[in-house]
Design goal:
about 50% helix, Rossmann fold, hydrolase, 16 helices, 2 domains, about 425 residues, alpha/beta, 6 strands, six-stranded mixed beta sheet, nucleotide-binding, IRG
């Protein structure tokens, strides 16, 4: 059990791409919860699985998301945190700012606009001879759920190393270019060209370091309602939701997928079960054993029309993950099974099964039948995974609120902007 449990809770081995990523965070489920889910899937009790996951997801609603704000010293990390929180530098709870290095130790800040979120202002790199590796270890970067890399004036090698470390740890991370107001006031280029030059420089440096392009935001801490700040807040709100709910749900869904795959493998190897399903239906071309097998396998996996609260819509084709399968769905969903059930194959098996041969070819017929049952099990397992994933998503995810703008009324935005 311990060995199988370790396999179930191991991180995804998928490579990270721009379109399909799997991120890690501290918001994980306990081994006890994983074991309960695995046991319920093995028993074919999918409704119990949904209940367990639903309870687990409800406990995630108060999970505190930890966000690290880091970069080279003097890049304006503290000013950025104040702007993100819509407070001025002079307010009592503001992060201290200044020309010299003001943050000596990690400092935690909260904001009413981000409930259950900690913004950690980390000491900047570059003020000492400390290496990036020792900095990552001392700041315990791996304990954060999301990393915001702040840069200004230049995108240095340290920034690339921070981004590379975040990617290696499979953390969500952003690059935020601050002090855009100063860049615009001193540049001889038109605004559009300046913004394009900054973005291209960052992208080129990241590509040289073999880092995929992260979300990139160009902001001015003196204008917290302009430039890319609204988009940054919207993206941050969505990722907080993902860290709190979608990531742990995806992890639990992968646990379910692995358990279903294990069950699929066991059923495929269980020749005694398939032999029992074939006994009453001797003709090799008969489909009755497959119909009986489909019903049996779906019951073993726990998928019936009563398993989940939705029904199938009439679309003219099988909707995987929407209902228990009917026999006619099998042929539509797998061309290999269609080939095995075609007229030519049926005629061939009838000839082999003829009494003229005195059972000489029975071993071929039985092998063929077993292969058909394997395909049915494979299709049922695939439908079970899709059905369960949809049930978990529909039953456990709370409505995702899209944070438009800053979450403040227009008067509040103006007042906040005026304080910088």
């Amino acid at each position: 059990m311990a060995k199988s449990l370790k396999v179930l809770i191991s991180p995804s081995s998928k490579s990270i791409t721009a379109d399909e990523s799997f991120y890690t965070s501290q918001n994980s489920s306990s081994p006890e919860v994983i074991e309960k889910i695995g046991k319920a899937v093995a028993e074919g009790n999918l409704q119990k699985v949904v209940c367990i996951v639903k309870d687990e997801m409800q406990s995630k609603s108060s999970y505190t998301v930890k966000i690290a704000v880091t970069g080279d010293s003097g890049n304006g990390m503290s000013s950025f945190i104040n702007a993100l929180r819509f407070i001025g530098h002079e307010e009592e709870d503001s992060a201290p700012t200044g020309v010299v290095r003001t943050t000596q130790n990690p400092a935690c800040y909260s904001s009413s606009h981000f409930p259950y979120v900690e913004l950690w202002d980390l000491p900047g790199l570059g003020a000492t001879a400390q290496s990036v590796e020792s900095y990552l270890d001392e700041m315990q970067i791996s304990t954060y759920d999301l990393i915001i890399i702040v840069a200004s004036e230049q995108f240095s090698a340290n920034h690339v190393k921070l981004a590379k470390a975040a990617q290696r740890m499979r953390k969500r991370f952003y690059v935020v270019w601050t002090k855009l107001d100063r860049d615009l006031s001193t540049s001889t280029f038109p605004e559009a060209q300046l913004l394009q030059n900054i973005q291209r420089n960052i992208h080129e440096n990241l590509q040289k370091g073999q880092v995929r392009d992260p979300p990139l935001f160009l902001v001015s801490c003196f204008s917290p309602s302009f430039h890319d700040f609204p988009e940054l807040r919207s993206t941050l709100q969505k990722d907080i939701f993902n860290i709190r709910y979608r990531d742990p749900l995806e992890t639990l869904s992968q646990v379910c997928d692995r358990c279903i795959s294990n069950k699929e493998f066991s059923l495929k190897e269980d020749r005694m079960l398939t032999n029992q399903l074939e006994v009453a239906f001797r003709p090799a071309c008969d489909t009755a054993d497959l119909e009986r097998g489909l019903e049996t396998y779906q019951k073993l996996f726990g998928v019936t029309d009563e398993s989940f609260p939705w029904g199938a819509q009439s679309t003219g084709r099988p909707e995987v993950g929407s209902r228990a399968l009917q026999f006619q769905d099998l042929l539509k969903m797998d061309r290999r099974l269609r080939l095995m059930m075609c007229v030519a194959v049926k005629v061939f098996l009838m000839v082999l099964g003829n009494s003229w041969w005195f059972g000489l070819w029975d071993f071929i017929i039985r092998y063929f039948r077993h292969q058909r049952h394997k395909l049915v099990i494979e299709i049922v397992a695939k439908n079970t995974k899709a059905s369960l994933r949809r049930a978990l998503k529909d039953s456990t995810l709370p409505p995702e609120s899209i944070w438009e703008g800053s979450g403040l009324p227009s008067s509040g935005i103006q007042a906040a902007s005026a304080s910088f």
